[in-house]
Amino acid sequence: xxxxxxxxxxxxxxxxxxxxxxxxxxxxxxxxxxxxxxxxxxxxxxxxxxxxxxxxxxxxxxxxxxxxxxxxxxxxxxxxxxxxxxxxxxxxxxxxxxxxxxxxxxxxxxxxxxxxxxxxxxxxxxxxxxxxxxxxxxxxxxxxxxxxxxxxxxxxxxxxxxxxxxxxxxxxxxxxxxxxxxxxxxxxxxxxxxxxxxxxxxxxxxxxxxxxxxxxxxxxxxxxxxxxxxxxxxxxxxxxxxxxxxxxxxxxxxxxxxxxxxxxxxxxxxxxxxxxxxxxxxxxxxxxxxxxxxxxxxxxxxxxxxxxxxxxxxxxxxxxxxxxxxxxxxxxxxxxxxxxxxxxxxxxxxxxxxxxxxxxxxxxxxxxxxxxxxxxxxxxxxxxxxxxxxxxxxxxxxxxxxxxxxxxxxxxxxxxxxxxxxxxxxxxxxxxxxxxxxxxxxxxxxxxxxxxxxxxxxxxxxxxxxxxxxxxxxxx
Length: 476
What we know:
476 residues, alpha+beta, Beta-Lactamase, Heat Shock Protein 90, 3 domains, five-stranded mixed beta sheet, transferase, phosphorelay sensor kinase activity, kinase, His_kinase_dom
């Protein structure tokens, strides 16, 4: 679930749409703030102008009456001013003398005559400082009453600004709705445009992953002609796919060649194994012909013939088993290791090398592994080990079952693998022909069986370990 919520795992089209939406929201917030700020300044300017005209008009009319404390004339003037005020913006006005005592008010109940005007003037602002941004629907404005430069009283007026607040709210809602609609449209448009732009990339991804790691060339008709960069990318992919096919074919031929190289080496060694018993067999037939009337001599010669023929039979059977076409369908058994030893032992005998051979496992337990690939892996590693070991050195093979896996270990007391040989055995990078008997073939076969191969230097010995998992049983 955490991977789903991680933005880095979302498709590019969704991320671009969200990025576009976020940018639009940010831009909308900045633009809306500018619009609302401009609107507030205009409203404040209009409100200040209205308050200035209203208060200055009252100041001119009320100045003489406030100087003489003529309460009725002050009240009459306030009443006429309220009646003539347009739009009902003026809610309440109170006039006080120079001592702050109320002379008259448009609502005498709120401000009785001779009461203190301080409760109204405390939160009132000067005409030039009034603003529509206070957040309240009613603002109070104060101004002095002067006659010929003499301060004779004060005026406090309450103004209704609820219409200005409603106008700002309506503007904010309109901006919010407009920004949301524009964000939605641009986000969807961005997703659509990006999806169209990414179609060649999706086509490339699909062709790269369709064939289980073997890329399939993209048809020329599917390559876009409008975007030269993407078209060049797709054609480069087609060239890469062709190069991979050519490399796979070259590696297949190389593996086949290395297989024949190993068989050629075995054939030269086995020729000695066949030639020696043949000489003994011919001597035995000559003896039988010469001493046909002597049963004890014939009997000894027949025993020699029997042993020699059995040895030749075992050698020929091992060779046939190693090269039979359908051997990959057979499962492994201890007999396969006996055949391997029979095939490989002449190589070590010819080089006067000691062969250490340890097979640890029951026949039934070996039956979970294919015979052909295991024999091929072991034979190629043994041939490589024999080539690396010095004359009179030591080569070893051990096979054991560990936690359901088959572990093959081939050792030799040679100088160790070169960097090129290690690359052939442990890496999938392309290599030049040569550099080790079947090492790349071993790596490919092990990888095909889902196993792993490692190489270590332990003391004076090189150890190559192959671990193969058991094959899953196919249900009938």
